[in-house]
Amino acid sequence: MGLRAGIYGGSGYAGTELVRLLAGHPEVGALGVSSRGYAGRGISEVYPQLAVEGAYVEPEEIDASSLDAAFVAYGHGESAAAVKGLLEAGARLVVDLSADFRLSDVGVYEEWYGEHPAPALLGEAHYGLPEVFGAPGGRLVANPGCYPTAAILALAPLVRRVAVRSVTVNALSGVSGAGAKPSVKTHFVTVNESVSAYGISNGSPRHRHTPEIEMMLRRVGKTPEVTFVPHLLPISRGELETIVVELEEPGELPEAGDVLGWYAEDYEGWGFVEARVEPPHISHVANTNRARLSAAVDPRAGKLLLFAAVDNLLKGAAGAAVQNMNLALGYPEDLGLEHLK
For residue 7, what is the domain's CATH number? Predict the structure, then answer.
């Protein structure tokens, strides 16, 4: 029979990747895919590149009580109510791709997102970055954001070992990171042949991934406030971060090789994180579930440079969600993802 899986919000960018991955997963026997906008239409009719039988359905048409794994790919604020309903209905595992369960402190969540629809579940959610926080336990996984995935993977081995004074994350992402719903900011004419910073409010960086990066790093080691500035690239997918780190004791600046050794030590046995001497290109990780890391040292300025690249729709969303399902249900992390290494 195999696993019964359901995707809620299966016609967005991340949802479409989930359809592709789960339809080919060797342990998934039945797959329900909901989309209010496309309900009743064939999946391969809407997306011909998906050779998947069946049609989109209304969310209510999926029997949540029978699901071994439910994936919720709704927007922030909308997702929590759906997650709560799925858990109450008896879904064995829910993986939420929104930010609704990433921040365990309800006060911090409300500062950045507004009132939380299901605060009682915040303490139950496992932050699903297994290379740093281990395999998910329990019935609710908060899938990390794409930017925090890259930043935390790059920074966690460092903050475990040295005292950090400041962190600045300069991040660049393809337009799919903004979601499938079009806006003036993401129209082709706006984005083409241009690069722009965003998440700036009243002259200050204020992007909602900032508290996620800080909160998760503080679970690992002492971490200062993080300056995080994302930029939109005129490409479809992929993400690159250059992270500038100043240490409390600049005289103890490590060599780049030391940092690469820390990466190798901390991520040994995890198949989707790799460290290289050469700084990564987005093309190195596009259409894969890999995170590629590198490091350099600027001795003149007394600063350390970290580099991280991921595919925002795979390791930053759908691929990580399937990896989390695998681990939560006792399968190898790369089951159904082997071709994305």
Answer: 3.40.50.720
Name the band, by pLDDT with cuts 50, 70 and 90, for residue 294: very high
Closest alpha carbon to 3 in 325, 321, 340, 324: 325
What are 187's two structure tokens? Answer: 């129209």
Is 186 a known active-site residue? Answer: no
| Residue 178 pLDDT grade (very low, low, confident, very high; cuts 50, 70, 90) | confident
Burial class (CB in 10 A: 0-12, 13-18, 19+), 188: exposed
DSSP 42: B
Q: How far is CA 189 from the centre of its chain?
A: 27
Structural domain range at position 201: 147-310
Please check whether residues 301 and 267 belong to one and the same domain: yes
Angle at 82 between CA 80 and CA 84, to 5 degrees: 70
How many domains in the chain? 2
> One of 146, 158, 175, 216 is an active-site residue; which one?
146
CATH assignment at residue 280: 3.30.360.10
The string of pLDDT tens digits covering residues 275-287 is 999 999 999 999 9
Tokens representing 221 are 């080691």
Helix, strand, or coil (residue 70): strand
Task: With a cut of 90, say whether residue 215 has pLDDT above it.
Answer: yes
